[in-house]
Amino acid sequence: MNKVILMGRLTRDPEVRYTQTSNTLVASFSLAVNRRFVRQGEERQADFINIVAWSKLGEFCSKYFKKGQQVGIIGRIQTRTWDDDNGVKHYVTEVVAEEAYFADSKKDGESSSSSFENTFGTTVSNATPEFTVASDDDLPF
After folding, report:
1. With 0-12 CB in 10 A as exposed, 13-18 as middle and 19+ as buried, what is 55?
2. How far is CA 18 from its chain centroid?
3. Distance between terminal CA atoms of the chain?
4. What domains does the chain contain, in order, with CATH numbers?
5. Based on the number of CB atoms within 10 Å of its own CB, is 110 exposed (0-12), middle (13-18) or buried (19 or more)?
6. What pLDDT digit, counting tens, does each position of 60-92 carry?
7. How far apart are CA 30 and CA 50, in angstroms?
């Protein structure tokens, strides 16, 4: 299984490009994700993780996500390689976003009806479960 769940702050505004072949939108950005533990006497460490979001999700990220904002990303890890014009092989590991959520608390004075956060955040609770159990007799344990 390849599933990644991250919460962090955007290090820059999402950058939008379009593929050459199909003109599909792709947004790319980076998240600073704090490490869980801090060594005594040291500052908290963070990992900087590259994220790509395609099509509608990429459009959403580019429109509503800004540098410094805390967001949640659910996706998968992907690695890819390519050779540049000089024949040098490049490797990159990134997270391909499948879901994106606001993780900041609301700003003062912001009404819930004007916030896209409430609308978008409800997708998790409406998700179709992977399986259902009719009774305890259906459980294998």
Report:
1. exposed
2. 19
3. 22
4. 4-138 (2.40.50.140)
5. exposed
6. 999 999 999 999 999 999 999 999 999 999 999
7. 4
Report which DSSP code applies to 45.
P
The mean pLDDT value of the chain amounts to: 82
Which amino acid appears at position 90 of this protein?
H
Residue 114 CA to chain centroid, in angstroms?
Answer: 23
Among candidates 22, 48, 29, 47, which has minimal Cα distance to 37?
47
Distance, CA of 104 to CA of 3 (rounded, Å): 23
DSSP-assigned beta bridge partners for residue 90: 82
Residues 6+ apart with CB under 8 A from 55: 24, 25
Q: Which residues pair with 4 in a beta bridge?
A: 75
Neighbours of 64 (CB within 10 A): 15
In this prediction the pTM is 0.71
Confidence of residue 109 (pLDDT cuts 50, 70, 90): very low
Measured over all CA atoms, what is the biggest interatomic distance in the chain, rounded to whole angstroms? 63
